[in-house]
C-alpha cells in the first residue's frame, strides 16, 4: 500500500466506523462459525498496524506478521504481540507452529499470488483449523481507492471459492457483508467517477455521521454467519482443509 494509506489506517482504525464495525463483525463470525477453545492458537497474516490484535486476543494466543516495517512497529506498540516480518506467500515466520485460526483480513487482494498464498497458509493449519478471509467484493466497484491500496483484484463469492478450492481448501462459509451501506457506496463511487474527485474513501467523517455509519454497519454482526446476504461491499469466507 502507499505510505499514506498505512499512516491513515494506523490513525483511524480505533475510531473510524469501517474499522470498528468490521472488527465487531469478524469477532461475531469467529464466535459463531468457529469452535471455542481456551488454548486456541491464532495467527494474523498481514496485521498492518495491529488494530485487530486485541480483539483476536479474546479468542486465544495470538501471533502476527507484517511486511511493512513501520506498520510492524506500530502493531507492537498497540499490543503485547511480538509482530514479526513476513511476506506472502513464500516468507512465513513462526516455523513449526500450527494454528487453529488464521486471519487474513483484507490482505489477499494485495497479493498477486492469491492461490499460492492460501495454499501456503493451509500448511500452517492445525487439525480442524480454519482460515478466516475478508476481501473487497465485486470487480465493478473498482475505484481509485483500490489503486491507492494497491489491490490486484476484487472478488465475488464464486471467484474466491474457486481460488480456495484450487489451493486445496474447502469453503465452509462464504457470504457478503456491508450490505446496508452498499447502495450509498455504489452511488458515491459513481459520483466520484463523474466529478473526478480524489477524496479518499476512508477519510474520517464528522462525529455524528461516524456514529450513524458505525451503528448501521455494526448491525450486521447479528446476521453474519446466520443468513446469506445477497450482496455487499465485502466478502468473508471460512476455509478449511479439504
Could you explain the architecture of this structure?
This protein is an alpha/beta fold and 242 residues long. Helices cover 38% and strands 20% of the residues. The protein contains nine helices and seven strands, in the order ααβαβαββαβααβααβ. Helix 4 (69-78) links the parallel strand 2 (61-66) and strand 3 (84-85). Helix 2 runs parallel beside helix 9. The longest helix is centred in the first third of the chain and has 17 residues, at 17-33. It is globular, with a radius of gyration of 17 Å. The chain starts with a helix and ends with a strand.
Identify the overall geometry. globular
The chain-level mean pLDDT equals: 92
Spatial sequence of strands, sheet with the most strands = 3-2-1-4-5-7-6
Count of helices? 9
Low-confidence stretches: none
User: Would you count the extended β strands for me?
Assistant: 7
- The termini sit apart by 32 Å
Helix/strand-derived class?
alpha/beta
Biggest β-sheet, characterized? 7 strands, mixed
Q: From the alpha-carbon coordinates, what is the Rg to the nearest angstrom?
A: 17 Å
- What share of the residues lie within helices? 25-40%
Strand residue content: 15-25%
Question: Topology as H/E string?
Answer: HHEHEHEEHEHHEHHE
Amino acid at each position: 500500500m502507499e505510505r499514506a494509506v498505512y499512516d491513515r489506517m494506523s490513525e483511524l482504525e480505533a475510531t473510524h466506523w469501517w474499522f470498528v464495525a468490521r472488527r465487531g463483525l469478524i469477532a461475531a463470525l469467529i464466535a459463531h462459525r468457529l469452535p471455542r477453545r481456551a488454548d486456541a492458537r491464532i495467527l494474523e497474516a498481514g496485521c498492518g498496524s495491529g488494530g485487530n490484535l486485541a480483539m483476536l486476543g479474546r479468542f486465544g494466543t495470538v501471533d502476527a506478521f507484517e511486511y511493512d516495517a513501520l506498520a510492524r512497529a506500530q502493531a507492537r506498540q498497540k499490543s503485547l504481540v511480538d509482530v514479526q516480518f513476513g511476506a506472502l506467500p513464500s516468507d512465513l515466520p513462526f516455523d513449526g507452529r500450527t494454528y487453529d485460526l488464521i486471519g487474513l483480513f483484507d490482505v489477499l487482494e494485495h497479493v498477486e499470488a492469491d492461490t499460492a498464498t492460501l495454499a501456503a497458509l493451509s500448511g500452517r493449519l492445525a487439525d480442524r483449523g480454519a482460515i478466516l478471509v475478508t476481501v473487497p467484493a465485486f470487480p465493478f466497484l473498482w475505484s481509485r481507492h483500490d489503486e491507492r491500496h494497491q489491490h490486484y483484484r476484487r472478488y465475488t463469492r464464486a471467484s474466491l471459492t474457486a481460488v480456495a478450492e484450487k489451493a486445496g481448501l474447502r469453503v465452509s462459509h462464504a457470504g457478503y457483508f456491508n450490505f446496508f451501506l452498499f447502495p450509498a457506496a455504489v452511488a458515491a463511487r459513481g459520483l466520484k467517477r463523474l466529478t473526478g474527485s480524489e477524496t479518499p474513501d476512508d477519510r474520517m467523517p464528522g462525529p455524528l455521521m461516524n456514529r450513524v455509519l458505525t451503528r448501521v454497519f455494526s448491525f450486521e454482526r447479528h446476521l453474519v454467519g446466520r443468513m446469506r446476504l445477497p450482496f455487499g461491499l465485502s466478502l468473508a469466507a471460512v476455509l478449511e482443509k479439504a
